[in-house]
Amino acid sequence: MTEKGTKTTEKAAERAVQRCIEPACAGTFGLRERIYVCPRCGGSIEIDCRLPAREEAGQLRERWRMRLASPEARDRSGVWRFREMLPFAEDTAFVTLREGNTPLYDAPRSAHYCGLAGLRLKHQGMNPTGSFKDTGMSAAVTQAMVLGARTVVCASTGNTSASLAAYAARAGVTAAILLPRGQISAAKLAQSMDYGALVCEIDGNFDDGMRLIQELGEDPAIYVANSINPFRIEGQKTVAFELMEQCGWEVPDHVVVPGGNMGNSTALGKGFQELLDLGLISRLPKLTVVQAEGSAPVARLFASLDSRRPAGDNSLPATMAPVENPRTLATAIKIGAPVSWKKALRAVLRSGGRVIAVSEQEIADAKAMIGRDGIGCEPASATTVAGMKRLVASGHIGREESVIGVLTGHVLKDPDYISQYHRGTLSLDAGAKDGAAQPIAGTFRNAPERVAATRAAILEILERRR
Ligand code: F0G
């Protein structure tokens, strides 16, 4: 670590403030104020990092790359090696599990499936707890420690909770998590139990949990780690830096991400914008967010804007109509009232991207295709490839354009879904009365074969598969 680097980081931490995103308010607040919405107007909060000067920025790329070879935990972390861009002092006791530094894979079969000449997938499921949440959680739990909080809480569809449980365990503080009972994958629930969190299964959906969290956050003893916490977004934005580094600082035409509570799209948008402000990239990639059809309030809002607005008009609507009873087998994104919709929509509009929705069948088939690339992901992540296929078909993405999809969760996060798809038994609202269940076809199914325990039987089945 050079002397100069230390100074840069300390200055960033000194200068950073929390700021309300509403232009009419733009209230600023100190970093130690425990706020999740603007105390003046109720608007969303983000952190203004007061980035390093452009002249200093030129040296950052090399410094960040060099840190990969360092033995120090904070240098090896894919979050903290970018600490010049983060609102923390150099001597902070960072809470890290070596998050980030995830692979960017070529995905030729998925590319062909979408009608693209090439496609790369950034696999955030290759993080310590198997989802993209870990980069943000490292920052949020570090801030909890800075503030001296003893209890951290979140509502979750399963991944945020697994991540918070792990980082809280690491930091030695209590994690309490609110999960919609019976609506999250068994694997995610198991993780949270293993990491020692207090697991509260509530009778309600994720949106009910989120409302409860906002009430709990008023208690000074409790620190909220959902993505309304602006420090979460700070950790998660580093994915944009790492991705650009992996692209050799050549900006891709499109970056496509799933959308649930809209924290990820907010964070990536902020990361790219900061790189642009620093002159480290020359333009923004078009940021496209893909939701599941039954849980797509932001896609619906975007479609309503799209037809009316003149080019270059990036003004934001004041409200978004929630989806009352969100439905999707991609339970990670079964969310009807995403808290970060405004920040995410702002990032999408600035970049010239879109927000769209895809069907359950499209998600399931895209997921199987990502598996055939030897990569795999959880259902919510596959909205990306499903969305790209649609956008190539509609001409919004050109066949030769460079496209990156962000996979958010590991293939083992939801094994029941996979097994049911490949056995041909996957169904939305299975067990619903009056024929309301919506079966999903196993288009690319690959069910296990029951085979006699003989050499001949196995050779015969191999022959049939050839
Ligand atoms: N993909 C996965 C695997 C997720 O777990 C989530 C969100 C998303 C995509 C959507 O990201 O909310 O930032 O737009 N999971 C949250 C949770 C809600 O509680 O684990 P987002």
Structural account:
The protein is of the alpha/beta class. It has a domain at 104-129 and 231-416: 3-Layer(aba) Sandwich (Rossmann fold). 39% of the residues lie in helices and 13% in strands. It has a six-stranded mixed beta sheet with strand order 4-5-13-10-11-12, sandwiched between helices. Helix 10 packs across helix 12 (341-351) and helix 13 packs across helix 14 (383-393). It binds ligand F0G. Ligand F0G is lined by residues 131, 156-160, 227, 258-265, 332-333, 378, 380-381, 408-409.
Summarize the structure.
With 466 residues, the chain is an alpha/beta fold. It has 16 helices and 15 strands.
Low-confidence stretches: 1-5
Number of strands: 15
The overall average pLDDT, rounded, is: 94
Shape: globular
Helix content: 25-40%
Chemical compounds bound to the protein: ligand F0G
